[in-house]
Amino acid sequence: MAVEVKKSNRLFKIIVGTVLVLFSSPCVIATVHDLIVGADDIEGALMVGSFCTMTTAIGIFLLVFGLKSPREAELVMSADLEKRVLQSASQQGGFLTVPRLAMETDLSLAQSEAILDELSRRGYANPQVSSEGAVEYVFQEFRSDRTLDELEFQIERAVAEAEEEQPVPDESG
User: Fold this and answer.
1) What tens digit of pLDDT does each residue of 116-143 get?
2) Within this chain, do residues 60 and 96 fall inside the same structural domain, yes or no?
3) Does any domain span residue 173?
4) How far apart are CA 158 and CA 92, in angstroms?
5) DSSP string covering 62-75
6) In angstroms, rounded to a whole number, what is the distance separating the alpha carbons of residues 53 and 24?
7) Confidence (pLDDT) at 148
8) Are residues 97 and 118 in the same domain?
9) Does residue 87 form part of some domain?
10) How confident is the model at residue 83 (pLDDT cuts 50, 70, 90)?
11) Cβ distance 64 to 105 under 8 Å?
């Protein structure tokens, strides 16, 4: 698959996070118990409790980020996939929607949206809402009306330059 969700990284975070939470939570509970009951070695209980609390927090952090949905997971875009997205944008006259990209590739809608958002973030596309209310990603390089706009501008500039070069007729004679 051209887009690889880093599954092994997610699995690692989930496993390590679970192990950390399962093994450090009882220590935190024991520390709280020792503080309430009044253990003989309060300083030792506080040190162990602090360490276990940090370990539990790290475990929770890893679990939260390991359990992210694939939509939020980091996507790795290959050069082949970038080329296919750009070819699709070119064929569509510079306008590309999430469903169109998903239809033309083996990507899900969520992955297509993430890729188009990434290309937008990098400055290659600009999202805009169409008159029908759909979000279109505009790739300026491939807009079919871009060449017409450029030609009109060049014609206007040439006409203006030609008018400036022509001598003004003398009305006195």
Assistant:
1) 998 999 899 999 988 888 899 998 888 7
2) no
3) no
4) 31
5) HHHHHT--TTTS-E
6) 7
7) 58
8) yes
9) yes
10) confident
11) no
In 3D space, the residue among 134, 48, 144 whose CA is nearest the CA of residue 89 turns out to be 144
- The reported pLDDT for the residue numbered 27 is 85
Which structural domain, as residue segments, surrounds residue 11?
3-66
State whether the Cα torsion 61-67-15-2 is positive or negative: negative
What CA–CA distance (Å, rounded) separates 72 from 93?
29
47 plus 82 within the same structural domain: no
Alpha carbon 133 to its chain centroid, in Å, reads 22
Residue type, 56: T
pTM above 0.90, yes or no: no
Phi and psi at residue 73, to the nearest 5°: -70, 155
Which strand (E) or helix (H) includes residue 21?
helix 7-37
**Residues paired with residue 127 on neighbouring β-strands, in sequence order:** 137
- What does the pLDDT look like over 24-71, one tens digit per residue? 888 888 888 888 888 788 888 888 888 989 999 998 888 887 777 554
Distance CA 40, CA 24 (A): 22
**What pLDDT, in 10s, does the model give residues 94-115?**
889 999 999 988 888 888 898 9
CA gap 121, 83 in Å, rounded: 17
